[in-house]
Write a structure and sequence with these properties.
The complex is a heterodimer of chains A (about 220) and B (about 110). Chain A is of the alpha/beta class. Chain A is about 35% helix and about 20% strand. With about 110 residues, chain B is an alpha+beta fold. Chain B has 2 helices and 6 strands; from the N terminus they run αβαβββββ. The longest helix of chain B is centred in the first third of the chain and has 14 residues, at about 1-15. Classes of the chains: A alpha/beta (about 220), B alpha+beta (about 110).
């Protein structure tokens, strides 16, 4: 006998992601899901972004890591509300982890929530958290073939941040090739080239981010 | 993912009062980055001791298909290039390639 099922395997996650999305929308919070390999500089990007934006807008952060609260401590030191999620071996955050962690954040007071996913370029792309957009981070020390090797993340993201561009002279990273391959996978991708160390390009990124925050707070 | 799949399958087994599941047929879009051999491996481990133990997973890969919103062309996306082959447009509607479905079960 055959039983037709036609059931989406990730439906449980997607139902909770929709719940989260409705909540963020109701509170007019712009929500970003930051995805990259380990060591591409997500936490440094957060620190630099917070420094530039926190005077004008209220940010909240969710830190996802397999173990430790080292990243959350770095964010906490900047005086920003932060919740740490330890996945205890899990390679991605899911919508329920986000839902459970929201109690620890003053949602009423936030303009923007940034979720730093677990360092991994594969599974985080498949799990909706309720975010407005995914932001992929790629550093020039990783190789310019990352977009073609891990296409899903780049296809699902609205933004690509190429980090550590101060190190370009010391690597064989081909910036044009990396951008070209990412834009083939996703021609709508908004690309920023930055260095969290030298500060190069950060203004352009934070100007764009704050204009998105303003647009979000004006619309439900 | 294997665990979430198993949860849905166990629910189906209960609902339909199934004695034995022989085959589970999945449809997996190419954009989902699912590695069939890994999914089968995880499923075999997780299903031990459950009502799904011994069931065979069959995974059918679904190509990425798009329709160009500018010229109406429908095409299969090759080598992950998301441009219309006809007019080079970038406003594409995705018709398939993102699914991760349990399609049907063969049972007793």
């Amino acid at each position: 006998m055959e039983i037709k099922v036609l059931s989406n395997i990730l439906k449980a996650n997607e139902a909770i992601a929709d719940e989260n999305r409705r909540l963020f929308s109701q509170k007019r919070i712009l929500t970003l899901n930051l995805i990259s390999s380990p060591g591409s500089g997500k936490t440094s990007l957060l620190e630099r972004t917070i420094e530039q934006v926190k005077g004008d807008y209220r940010l909240g952060i969710i830190e996802g890591d397999v173990q430790t609260s080292k990243d959350a401590e770095r964010i906490h030191a900047l005086g920003i509300p932060v919740v740490q999620i330890n996945t205890d071996g899990g390679c991605h955050l899911d919508a329920n982890m986000i839902k459970m962690s929201l109690d620890g954040l003053p949602l009423e007071e936030l303009d923007c929530l940034i979720i730093e996913n677990v360092g991994n370029l594969v599974c985080p792309a498949g799990y909706q958290l309720g975010e407005d957009m995914k932001v992929a981070v790629l550093s020039v020390t990783e190789g310019d073939d990352k977009p073609s090797k891990y296409p899903s993340v780049f296809h699902e993201s609205r933004v690509l941040i190429i980090n550590k561009i101060d190190l370009l002279p010391f690597t064989n990273f081909d910036l044009a090739a990396a951008k070209d391959s990412a834009l083939h996978i996703n021609p709508h991708l908004k690309v920023f080239e930055i260095s969290c160390t030298s500060g190069q390009g950060l203004d352009i990124w934070t100007d764009w981010l704050t204009s998105e925050i303003r647009t979000r707070s004006a619309t439900r | 993912m294997a665990q979430e799949m198993l949860n849905i399958l166990e629910e189906q087994v209960k609902t339909h009062k199934v004695k034995k599941v022989h085959r589970v047929s999945l449809r997996v879009g190419k954009m989902m980055s699912v590695v069939p051999s890994s999914l089968i491996f995880c499923f075999e481990i997780l299903s031990k001791g459950t009502s799904l133990e011994g069931a065979k997973l069959e995974i059918e890969e679904v190509p990425v298909k798009c329709r160009c919103k500018d010229c109406g062309e429908e095409f299969i996306v090759e080598s992950l290039s998301f441009f219309c082959p006809e007019c080079k447009g970038i406003n594409l509607e995705h018709l398939s390639g993102h699914e991760f479905l349990i399609h049907h079960l063969e049972v007793d």
